[in-house]
Design brief:
The protein has about 350 residues and is an alpha/beta fold. It has eleven helices and 15 strands. The chain binds nicotinamide-adenine-dinucleotide and uridine-5'-diphosphate.
Length: about 350
């Protein structure tokens, strides 16, 4: 297919995407990552799954000279840009670090791409750019709003930077992907989500409860206006998401333009339904307590995923049972996450 540079390719979504890319024998892959939220041993796992080892450059996307060197040597056809900080709560405590890492880092990357004539980019955005939507089912025509956290605002800023670059140079091809809730793990049990410290997100939290690393789950709110009172989200299996990147990359390379797609399953699942799905496969059920609502949570939202289906020919293939089975397999085999520092 092509020669691809993957920023943040050692992280959760990036590593699963690298596995899909390496599954195409005509695809050359180099990861550029500063390992601030990932471990080098991910590369061994990728090699075990694919029998191929991606190139690796340890560098920070804010380091313009290192980026220029890497792009000059690799000469990629396209960049898939995952690198960034992603914790909403932390971004409220450290907004300047988030703008520096995400926005300044992306700007350095685009400058290096322009310098070396690299004109194709697929970017990891987020459904958070929609803020509080008018309706729970969100199409891409929903307006992008001022972010309700510094993290969300960095995604809005980068989307606008990419749009403006394309407007100034129409040969630049941009594919913005707005993820809903990425969850799950590779079915080999060799790769999955490995958060630092106590997880904030639902799936890694339940996964750690399931293996006894955490005592119980707190369900944040059971008095929402939803059928069982708990919040509803669009959980998407990370392997489906990775395949969405393959479809987007091919579209970006073959039909240059400016595109934005929702990547979600197109259906809502409640927190209670996730817990029930987990309990269906466990001998010892997940213990949980209902707590207060978490500030800032929206009762219900999920993707309208028809645009990606129609234009990219992509749709999700994994259901909630696959998600909990694969998450549990990964967590059980790697209770402390990836080996190494
Ligand atoms: P992750 O933290 O697992 O992966 C990000 C990777 O980028 C890590 O390996 C980290 O070391 C690297 N990185 C961070 N800052 C860097 C820098 N300055 N220079 C070089 N490398 C750097 O996160 P993820 O869940 O795989 O998310 C990937 C992308 O998708 C992020 O941009 C994130 O904002 C976006 N996203 C994630 C979610 C989610 O729920 N996981 C949802 C929507 C969007
Ligand atoms: N949630 C929960 N307990 C937790 C973590 C999350 O009940 O320990 C709920 C949270 O309130 C939300 C849903 O699970 O309704 C998904 O939260 P997550 O942080 O995974 O993703 P978000 O949709 O907030 O990005």
């Amino acid at each position: 297919m092509a020669n691809i540079l993957v920023t943040g390719g050692c992280g959760y979504i990036g590593s699963h995407t690298v596995v899909e890319l390496l599954g195409d024998p005509s695809c050359q892959v180099t990861i550029l990552d500063n390992l601030s939220n990932s471990k080098r041993s991910v590369l061994d796992r990728i090699e075990r799954i694919t029998s191929r080892r991606p190139g690796f450059v340890q560098a920070d996307i804010r380091d313009g000279a290192a980026l220029s060197r890497a792009l000059g040597e690799i000469r990629p056809d396209a960049v898939i840009h995952f690198a960034g900080l992603k914790a909403v709560g932390e971004s409220c405590q450290k907004p300047l670090e988030y703008y520096d890492n995400n926005v300044c880092g992306s700007l350095r990357l685009l400058e290096a791409m322009r310098e070396h004539g690299v004109k194709n980019i697929v970017f990891s955005s987020s459904a958070t750019v929609y803020g509080t939507p008018a309706n729970p089912r969100i199409p891409e025509t929903e307006p992008v709003k001022r972010g309700n956290s510094p993290y969300a605002q960095t995604k809005v800023d980068i989307e606008w930077m990419l749009e403006d670059w394309h407007r100034a140079d129409s040969s630049v091809s941009v594919c913005i992907l707005r993820y809903f809730n990425p969850v799950g793990a590779h079915q080999s049990g060799l790769m999955g989500e490995d958060p630092l410290g106590i997880p904030n997100n639902l799936m890694p939290y339940i996964a750690q409860v399931s293996v006894g690393r955490l005592p119980h789950l707190n369900i944040w709110g059971n008095d929402y206006p939803t059928p069982d009172g708990t919040c509803i989200r669009d959980y998407i299996h990370v392997v489906d998401l990775a395949r969405g990147h393959m479809a987007a990359l091919s579209h970006c390379l073959n039909r240059p333009g400016l595109y934005a797609y929702n990547l979600g399953a197109g259906r809502g699942i409640s927190v209670q339904q996730i817990v029930d799905a987990y309990n269906a496969i466990l001998e010892k059920p997940i213990s949980y307590v209902y707590g207060p609502r978490r500030p800032g949570d929206i009762a219900e939202y999920y993707a309208d995923a028809t645009k990606a289906a129609e234009e990219l020919g992509w749709r999700t293939e994994h259901g909630v049972e696959d998600i909990v089975r694969d998450t549990y397999r990964w967590q059980k085999a790697n209770p402390e996450g990836y080996p190494g520092d």
